[in-house]
Amino acid sequence: METFIRNVERTAGFFLLAIALLTFLSVAGRFLFSVQVPDAFDFTKLIQGIAIFWGIACATWRNEHIVVDLLWEHVSPANQRRIDIAATAVLLLFIAGIVFMLGSRVWQDLANSSQATSDLRLRIAPFHALAWLGMLTALFLGCVRLKRLILPARAPQATEPVDGS
Amino acid sequence: MDRDLVALLGFVLMFVLMLLRVPIGVAMAIPGVIGFGILTGVAPALKLLATTPLSVVTDYNFSVIPMFVLMGTLCATAGMSRELYAAGNAWFGHLRGGLSLASIAACGGFAAINGSSVATAATMSSVALPEMRRAGYDAGHAAGVIAAGGTLGIMIPPSVIFLLYGILTETDITKLFFAGVIPGLLGMAMYAVTVQLIGWRHPQMMPRGARHSWPERWTSLQPLWAVLVLFLFVLGGMYTGVFTATEAAGMGAMGALLIGVLRGRLTPPEIMRALVEALRTTASIMVIAIGAYLFGYFLTITQFTQKTVEALTALPIGAYGVLAVILVGYFILGAIMDELAMILLTVPIVFPVMMKLGFDPVWFGVIIVMAVTLGMICPPVGINVFVINSIQRDISLVRIYKGVMPFIASDIIRLVILCAFPAISLALPRAMDAPWAEIIKRVLGFT
């Protein structure tokens, strides 16, 4: 499982690098050669969506979402575990809602939508489907995490505090 | 059901879920969707789940966040934070509280290449804190300096909080970034004065270090070219209009990568580590953004925002009185809530109030960042304090809070100064529109 997660993280990380590279090429092309990278704008958005949804899957597995520990820090370990179970269940409920609703839309788009990128006219639906798979993975990993919290098994711990502010 | 009651219940449910350690973004999203469902029906509410998360994560404006986060992680991985601290130590280490001053200088320098307060605090905790403790500094004071110094990360550009504020209010991000420069430098100066005052009252807390020779001091500045080049590249590019703020983020990330690789500081595994770290941070932030948007739709339909604007602007206490009320609200909220969530949740409500009262949007952005700065170090939920405690487990939260108290006082004074003298924040943004700035751009061939 850990190898799978690491590979997912690395792949999604490369997507971030791809966004930086696209921006760099786009600006350099425009400023130095007066040429545009085709679909740089669309690709940036789509790649970002894929990277973030897959990143959410990893954050769900590693329990690295930003949370408020105010109550949790002042209760017994047994109650901490109960709080963790309840919080993970609520998180899963939310992710399940997205997976179901977004999934219906994405599958419809895959079948019917001809929405495409501006320059290369590539269909957008497959990119959205790839992003949706990230949320589906988040749901799966969240379920495994919840099972490990409920049953006496070792739950994965956050490696380090994460925050973006 | 009555809209006001639904709005109230929505807020209650949100805080309850947050206390139950539900991820903050989800704690906002669930009452948002449920409340929206109660007022409009189940189908429209569920439709929100089909559209909002995807539209938020594929919003081009939000690409600034992963890119500036990536720039920061690449710089930290390339060891730039250590170079900054070493230079600070060489110049100030021999003074009373010299290592505290070095930490503040390093935090300010690192803030110029990194947009996160927590990342600044976490990085400098690993770099500066062990050295300060080895030198005999009081652990609580040392941790307090870094917790406070870390907040410079969101005032000195680039800044994630300025970015979010700019995106939410459609305020020029370049102007916001420039508006943060002087208040950030003022913050550094005031922290330095605070350190000197503490050293004067409690000299035993901060022994003097060894004096470095002048050649050593000048040598310590040499590696800082990378920080300077990156800072000037990003801000200069935005200022001259060569690239937009959104593009500046990507250019900064690529610049950090190229500089790191050319200096031999970034190997493929280290680049990978920086990418994964940036991904984790971005994912955590974007979950909050999704939640805030869902909760925001709910608030819109309850007309909560509109009613709040009307109520606040009708208060018979004048514009600055309303500002004071809002700031007090931020302090209370900051004590229990994450700063990103606070910005995403409250700015759409308070910004129209401030505009209606005639305040400058760029100046108000600086004031909001100051309010957030205080929230990051104030008890009981000062995220910077928590981060340092998680890295240096043997320094208790109470001890760090004690250490950070003088800096909270310094920040409150700075907030009052910035409120009283808007010119401090607005001087640089206004200079961007000055005729001579246009002439410079034209001479350089950028317009």
**Helical fraction of chain A:** over 70%
Mean pLDDT, all residues of chain B: 89
Strand segment tally of chain A: 0
Looking at the structure, what is the overall shape of chain A?
elongated
Order of helices and strands of chain A: HHHH
- Specify the number of helices of chain A: 4
- How far the N terminus sits from the C terminus of chain A, by CA atoms, comes to 30 Å
Question: What percentage of amino acids of chain A are in beta strands?
Answer: under 5%
The biggest beta sheet of chain A is recorded as: none
Global structural class of chain B: mainly alpha
Notes on the protein architecture:
The complex is a heterodimer of chains A (about 160) and B (about 450). Chain A is mainly α. Helices cover about 70% and strands about 0% of the residues of chain A. Chain A starts with a helix and ends in a 15-residue tail after the last helix. Mean pLDDT of chain A is about 90; it is low at about 160-165. Helix content of chain B is about 80%, strand content about 0%. In chain B, α13 (about 180-200) crosses α23 (about 395-420). Chain B is globular and about 75 Å long. The N and C termini of chain B lie far apart (about 55 Å). Chains A and B meet through α1, α2, α3 and α4 of A and α1, α2, α3, α4 and α7 of B.
